[in-house]
Structure formats: C-alpha cells, structure tokens
C-alpha cells in the first residue's frame, strides 16, 4: 500500500493543495482562485474548492485515489477557529483514509517549525498567534477585524485613516503622510467617510483588506522619518509586544513571524526581541503536509 500525504492551505480568496510521497517529496501541487473559508455558505464553498483541487492534483500525479494507496490529509482553512465548523466539515465525503481539519494558523505554525515545538505570530491583513510547547497548545488572537486582530494590517490601515482625518481637521498635527492620504480623497472628509460606508469602486462598505491596502504608505513614509508614520510603527510594535511577551511567559524559545506585514516588521521585531524571533522554515502548505504525516503516524500507532 502506497502512503501519500495531502496538505491544503485554504484561504479567504485562494485555495492550494500539495501532494507528497512517504518521504514528503513533492508529487504535485495546484491552486485555485476560490475561497476555502468554512464560514462561507456553511462550508460548501470550501468543499467545492477542495474537491476541484483533488481532481486536478490526482490527475497531475497520475494517481487513482481509489486504488492501492493510503492517503492522509490535513486541511488548514480560514474560518477554522470554530470547533463546530471544523467538526462538521471533517465528516463530509473526501477521498482520504484519514483527515484532520485545522485552523489555518495550525498549518502556519507547523510549517514555520517543521512540525517541531515553537510559536507563530501571523501579522497580515488579520492577525493571530499559536504556540506548541511540550505538547501543550497555546492560542490567542484571531477573533477578526471587529473585536480582535490588534496586530493586523487592517487595523494599522484604519489607524492611519483615523489619524489622517483628525490631522486634516486640525485636532492633531499634520504630516506629509496624513496629507498624502487625504489627497487620495480629494482632501474631503466626506469622501473618506463615504468610502468607509460604501466604497464607490466596489459598491460595498470597506472591508479589512481595503484598510490593509494603506499599510505600504506607512512604511514608505516611515523611511522618510515622517512623525505620524513613526507613531503608527510604534503602535504596531506595542500591539505585537503583548503576544511576544505572552509566549515568552509560556516558555517560547522560537517565535516565527509570518504574513505580509509581519515580514515588513521582521527587522524591527528582531532588533526589539532578539534571537527569539525567527523566520519560518517552511510555508503553511508544507505545514499541512507535515501535519498529515503526523496524523498517519498517530493513526498507525493506534
């Protein structure tokens, strides 16, 4: 019986799948511009995307999943923070002998440390943190734009817009950064407010990703010693402090930083916290493959 491992990285806009052999060598990989968020259509969107990827990847590898193969799979999917959503999705019909559904941060952590102990802090459009130390799982954050995600790019972008608005009204000091932002809205606070409620380019209210698009401006002007940009970077570092210190108090010796904003912050974070901050060893998709392999080992032992 041939042992195979499938890893899935299912995001809010894109889904990826990787197929590996018993030695975790890559056999095939595929991606679709389809979401795998378990909160979309009660998981139907994720199921459709994953089944479509299965068809593609098995064809690429010339493997019949109903043949003499044993396939263990791990899904790391957006919206997997809720246990009920993960459990309901895991009982659907898939062409795998064993399956485990995880939150997407689990596969990011597994990839970052090659399946070994360690913590990961995700700082992208959203933010979350997870650590595994001596078999004990520690998770915090990841509760979304409205009630959490304080390290997130969406929050940083929103903070920039707030500072730009108050500076435009003379409540706080203006800077080249705040002026650049307000110029984007024709120096009209009403247009900024209207954008937040009903972005005319999309016909819908601004979403976290829309706020996140302003983050590159913060770094552009930070490099120009803009005082408001410096305040925003300090705000971001202060937000990250809570999570790094939370993990250090629980014995973390390696905290990997992932996500687009996290990579931009990495030099500053290493200067601030030292060698406890590390770059990820592998991507989340490989983390899913690693967890699939660990799932097989667990099932084989039992």
The assigned structural class equals alpha/beta
Residue windows where pLDDT falls under 50 for at least 5 positions:
none
Looking at CATH, the homologous superfamily of the largest domain is: ATPase, nucleotide binding domain
Name the shape in a single word: globular
Number of strands: 10
Polypeptide structure, described:
This protein has 302 residues and is α/β, with parallel strands linked by helices. It has 2 domains: 2-114 and 282-301, Nucleotidyltransferase, domain 5, CATH 3.30.420.40; 153-278, ATPase, nucleotide binding domain (Nucleotidyltransferase, domain 5), CATH 3.30.420.40. It is 45% helix and 21% strand. It has helices at 44-61, 83-90, 104-112, 153-168, 176-184, 189-198, 208-212, 215-222, 227-248, 260-273, 284-301; strands at 2-10, 15-20, 26-32, 69-77, 98-103, 118-123, 127-133, 136-141, 255-258, 277-278. A 5-stranded mixed beta sheet has the order 3-2-1-4-5. Strands 8-7-6-9-10 form a 5-stranded mixed beta sheet, sandwiched between helices. A hairpin with a 5-residue loop joins strand 2 and strand 3. The longest helix has 22 residues, at 227-248. The radius of gyration is 21 Å and the shape is globular. The protein starts with a strand and ends with a helix.
